[in-house]
Amino acid sequence: MRNLYLILILNLIVNSVFTQNVEFRARNFPDDNGALRTATDNIKNGDDFIRDAENALTERNENLSISLYEKALEHYLQAQNFNPNNSELNFKIGKCYLGSYEKSKSLSYLLKAVELDSENVDPDVFYLLALAYKYHNEYEKAIESFNEYQNTLSRKQLQNSRRVLRTEINDTRSAGQLFANPVRVFISNLESVNSVYSDYCASITADEEFLIFNSRRTDVTGGRKDEDGRYFSDIYISYKDHGAWGTPRNMGAPLNTEGHDESVAVAPDGQKMYLHKVDNNISNIYLSSLQGDRWQEPEIMPSAINTQNNQTHASFSHDGIKIYYISDQMGDPDIFFSGIMDRNRNQWGRGQRIGYGLYTTSDEGAIYFHPDGKTIYFSSKGHNSMGGYDIFKSVQGRDGIWSRPENLGYPINTPYDEKYFTVSADGKFAYLTSNREGGKGEWDIYKIRFLGPPKHNIIDNEDQLLASIAQPIREIKPEPAVEVITTNLTVLKGRVLDDFTKKPVEATIEIVDNVSGQIVSVFYSNSLTGKFLVSLPSGINYGIAVRAEGYLFHSENFDLPELSDYQLVDKDIMLKNIAIGSKIVLRNIFFDSGQSRLRPESTTELNRLFDLMQDIPNLTIEISGHTDNVGGESFNIRLSEERATAVVNFLVQKGINRSRLIAKGYGPNRPMTSNDSAEGRQMNRRTEFEIIRN
Question: Please, which pLDDT band fits residue 481 given cuts at 50, 70 and 90?
């Protein structure tokens, strides 16, 4: 293998004067003793910084290590200006660049280190060359370098490092395959949001109304700098403006303080946020809620989640009853989850590590649970990473087992770090944080548009279909692309308003599985705006009840078959006061076609009506049945009256006095809308109640 490098070196110096290794000694610079002394002092200073950088890496302080490598570089490069032909110095510069944000610059210096002194160069150069080749997407050369490095090791050294090297080589082969078969995406730098500083960990609401992220730019609260020389982190927000993300603004107190403040996740409805803070050198997860237009003081999550170890990242589940988070309580950072046991007392179950096969002996960095209720995206240095952190996907089956993690592929993933990832509810877009070169800052946020597999060609001309920082991919121009990711999800959003005044109402929104009768989740509309948003994964017949003090409850039904397509439903809900003449539709009362027997899925809605009658003992109501105009009028009137009577009988059996209940059947005579469409006929088939006396 060493011969391969000699051939490479010979190719590099064809038609040029052979350059020899020049030591930093007085005899080599007889007329520049002062400059030589300055250069050797710079090398000594650089050696001190590089030693500290390696210690910082051992202590898992990557930000500090990068800063120290950069400081070492400043000194080494000054010495390099004096003497560019020293093998050891070129080796050290290449090593520093690999530890910095400008990793691709390392290759030329490492190659020169070998060129200048192939016999005495530090053997680690071949390991570093392998890494450097990966940052240039030269994977075969990287494997050759790993093999060359193995040849320099003693038998004992090889025994100690064989497993690590085997993993490195296997990952490099996998990276080469991913690079050779890029996924069809369009990646663009989110320039309106990013700065020349680190911008990272973007979170979006399910309707993409706003984007929250972290940044270490100059206007952070307090303006302080960390030991790595960079500004402390603060939380920023950007709103959509005519389809584009607007200029970010600092979110201020109480989310941001004079210390490090980071948002790690926003709930799909945008009403809650998980934060990451450091307390006495321990990383913890905090929670803040949006009350009106103001975020509340973050509160630390319970000890069932925050252990004596580090908890660094978290994600909401679609139903708000679980938290998925990263913790190093078992050694290396892994994915854990916990479920809420008592919402009123904020009691959570003890955190457990997620399913076998998802965690590795390497680090997991961040996690995002999609609102579809079954898909997670997470970053990991394990599995088949292209290098550093890569983004992986896993889907939970109906048996609760998570699928084998799937690398999202190149150019989403690169040999650089891709650490934070979030996907829009419809699956068409994603937001990625990466430190790949070519961005505006050290860490940047990128927007990904997913493209489907190409269809049959229309035109045989070439076009740029894939864009990435690393390398564009040229292919034949296909027909318009379809989305590569589909989500089986309904997003219901809107406002809860007073039906008379049209003013916002703070209401409780209860989601129920009509078949099992179990409460799926509980949400709340915003107290200032009345806005709400709920995510409804397919495969469930949902009953939705909206309740507020002093109002009749409002019900909605979404019966979503398995694998039903994504849809966004934007609907304002009008709550009616408890007054004579107020009328609501009971949308979660069900009968079989042509029958008057109540189906079991109706039980939860009927119990809500019973509770209302219990809470207001003077209430007298009319239960009315309605049909569409299909079939004979007399049959429909009789059927609708029998259905109304079935509801009354249920309430009587539960203990409501029959004198408070009136059953009426109106058949097709009081339609809500036209019967000319299937949707209209479905709306007209309903059960209502109206307040007669109070």
Answer: very low
What type of residue is 347?
Answer: Q
* Residue-by-residue DSSP string for 501-564: T--B---EEEEEETTT--EEEEEE--TTT-EEEEEEESSEEEEEEEE-TTB--EEEEEEE-TTP
Biggest CA pair distance of the chain: 116
Q: What is the CATH number of domain 185-476?
A: 2.120.10.30
Provide the 10 A C-beta neighbour count for residue 667.
21
At 610, give phi and psi (nearest 5°): -60, -45
507 Cβ contact partners less than 8 Å away, ≥ 6 residues apart: 496, 524, 525, 530, 532, 546, 547, 548, 551, 573, 575
pLDDT in the model for residue 161: 86
What letter represents residue 634's amino acid? Answer: S
b/e burial code for range 453-469 (CB count within 10 A of at least 16 → b): eeeeeeeeeeeebbebb
357: left (phi over 0), alpha (psi -120 to 50) or beta: left
pTM (2 decimals)? 0.88
Q: Which CATH number among 3.30.1330.60, 3.30.1050.10, 3.20.20.30, 3.40.50.1820 corresponds to the domain 578-694?
A: 3.30.1330.60
Q: Residue 182: which residues within 8 A CB-CB, separation 6 or more?
A: 409, 410, 411, 466, 468, 473
Angle (CA) 201 204 209, round 5°: 145
Token pair recorded at residue 52: 């500290």
Task: Measure the CA–CA gap between 428 and 436, rounded to whole angstroms.
Answer: 23
Query: Which of helix, strand or coil describes residue 679?
Result: helix
pLDDT per position as a tens digit, 639-670: 999 999 999 999 999 999 999 999 999 999 99
Nearest to 577 by CA among 604, 544, 551, 612: 551
For residue 579, which of 619, 537, 633 has the smallest C-alpha distance? Answer: 619
What digits encode the pLDDT tens for the residues 602-618? 999 999 999 999 999 99
CB neighbours (10 Å) of residue 654?
14
